[in-house]
From TrEMBL:
CDD domains, per database record: PRTases_typeI
Protein name: Adenine phosphoribosyltransferase
Domain Phosphoribosyltransferase, residue spans: 63-166
Protein source organism: Pseudodiaptomus poplesia
GO cellular component, as recorded: cytoplasm
Keywords, comma-separated and alphabetical: Cytoplasm, Glycosyltransferase, Purine salvage, Transferase
Record GO biological process: adenine salvage; AMP salvage; purine ribonucleoside salvage
Length: 187
């Protein structure tokens, strides 16, 4: 006989709690004064990994008709972007740290919470005028997401939205980002 709640889909809120509970924090990494939130700890926990994947699939379905491609940011965005892209049958395109992508690239310099860097996208990776979903694990100061938006605009594409798993709300990074920002967890 069926038990109560058997076959009932878990709510987004209960899935988010499972994910939040698995996120491990490290003080003073990679520099003094930085509290580092480690998305990889979610992937070490079977229930958290499953909950996160389900949330990503649900989000993917909700944006399917609004986007043409998913762009993930090096490196932790690569955990997230391919699953969203695969769920809705859209192309996945990487933005990588400078010097890692073959062929002609657009390049941008930027600052993030604990340093400076350069990122690239291949000039022909996106079709002109594509509506692009940008995904990453975490929004801190917003420097990385804004740099990604600049690269996508260099490809003559439109940023539909930037989606992050974790937003460090106190850093107000979304103010720096010139495109819409959505976050799963506000910490
Ligand atoms: O909002 P910001 O201050 O710009 O910081 C956020 C970025 O910092 C981290 O990436 P990192 O450059 O450390 O690369 P990694 O994913 O390879 O560790 C994180 O994955 C985001 O991409
Ligand atoms: N505090 C933080 N934790 C994890 N990744 C980050 N990237 C930038 N700031 C970060």
């Amino acid at each position: 006989m069926a038990q109560p709640n058997e076959n009932v889909e878990p709510s987004n809120d209960s899935l988010k709690k499972t994910v939040v509970d698995a996120i491990e924090e490290y003080e003073d990494f990679p520099k003094p004064g930085i509290k580092f939130l480690d998305i990889f700890s979610v992937y070490r926990s079977k229930p958290a990994h499953e909950a996160f994947s389900l949330l990503l699939e649900r989000y993917a379905v909700s944006v399917k008709n609004s986007i043409d491609a998913v762009v993930g940011l090096d490196s932790r965005g690569f955990l997230i972007g391919p699953l969203i892209a695969r769920t809705i049958g859209k192309p996945f395109v990487p933005i990588r740290k400078k010097g890692k992508l073959p062929g002609p690239c657009h390049t941008v310099k930027y600052s993030l919470e604990y340093g400076t860097a350069e990122m690239e996208i291949q000039t022909t990776a996106l079709q002109k005028n594509a509506n692009v979903l940008v995904v990453d694990d975490l929004l801190a100061t917003g420097g990385t997401l804004e740099a990604a938006c600049k690269l996508i605009k260099s490809c003559e594409c439109n940023v539909f939205t930037c989606w992050v798993a974790i937003e460090l709300v106190a850093l107000e990074g979304r103010k720096l980002v010139s495109s819409p920002v959505e976050s799963l967890l506000q910490l």
